[in-house]
Design brief:
The complex is a heterodimer of chains A (about 160) and B (about 260). By secondary structure, chain A is an all-alpha fold. Helices cover about 75% and strands about 0% of the residues of chain A. Chain B is α+β, with helices and mostly antiparallel strands. In chain B, a hairpin with a 5-residue loop joins strand 6 and strand 7. Classes of the chains: A mainly alpha (about 160), B alpha+beta (about 260). At the A-B interface, helix 1, helix 4, helix 5 and helix 7 of A face helix 1, helix 2 and helix 3 of B.
Chain lengths: ~160, ~260
Amino acid sequence: MDSHAQGLIFVAVSLLAALVLTIAPLSAGLAWLRPDWLMLVLIYWLLAMPENVGIALCWMCGIVQDILLGTVLGQNAFSLAVVAYIIQISYQQLRMFSLRKQAALIALLELFRILVDQWAQNLNGVSQTHWLVFLPVFSTALLWFFLRPMMSWLQRLFVAY
Amino acid sequence: MGGLALALILLGARLESMAPLRTQLSVVAAPFYWLADVPSRLSAQFSGVFSSRSELLEENRALRAESLILNAKLQKYIELSTENVRLRELMNSAERVKDTVVVAEVVGVASDPNRHMLVVDKGSRDNAFVGQPVIDAKGLLGQIVDVGVYHSRVLLITDSAHAIPVRISRNGLRAVAEGSGRIDELSVAHVAATTDIQVGDLLVSSGLGDRFPSGYPVGEVTRVAIDPGKPFAEINARPLAELDRSRNVLLVFSEKIAVE
């Protein structure tokens, strides 16, 4: 198997794992902190393999997330497509950013995702929200410090160049 | 891409024709729910394998005792139900409702802690339908809002988008119990401050609105606050069903039986 195919398989496996972690049951308190696994993994691949992972893949992952979560069909597809676009037009600079700068950008993108989520749910009649829904902004940004080194280590381990 | 997704968001909630598409798409979700449920299934299996003989004997004894008590209660229930039918005949009630239930297993919970939803392992394949009432051993749990082929999504009575018509079993007073967004609280809306309602009153489903069958316990009133400045009393109730603990739930199929 050539390294390209290996890379694509690793992308698929990591995305599947992110989707399972998105719906994995957590206790009531921890659930507020659940980081946005799918967005982090997609951003990693948008930066690492921009020629293979693009807006279309992010859009499809968003649709799958909508189906899994039972949210308004298209809300995660929309926000992930926008995130992918922002990353894609500037990935060459973003790659050079320090982890801390990248995490700050991720916090902003996650805030955007949460706002889209709240807006779409309001369309569907959910009126009461708690300010705790914004906690994933911090947990997602913090997770990036661990996820990026871990993913690049795994990538070197499984994908031979 | 973004435009397509936006169109989906805006149209999805309004177009009826989107519902079958969702049902078909939900097949994608089945393997994910299966995977996410693996840890809890494994732990259940392990505890089954490693429980000791004395524990099992103890559990067996407790279950036998419970079965005896339930059977004794059942004798009374048969008597009461025939009496009920006789009384309904006297009142010329046209129909009564017979409920059958199907056991479903909870395979997932909403990952958004702001929404109170469960995913159960019965779907359109098992004749589950949108609007179907769901109960557990203690009381009413919620209703199905989204049916897939293998799974359905249950909206719990405490979700902030849910409301259920109830009646106070002590005096038959009608009210509406709304979800508060907290898993252990319902709020009873628009009850006049002069109404006879007390802490400890049992709320049962009233059957109005043709969604939930009548007579299932919903909650127990925990707080009645009457503020003279407000037109309505502030009333809270605690749901009786074990919303955050039930592993097995019951889907209710009601069939109307005409009484001669």
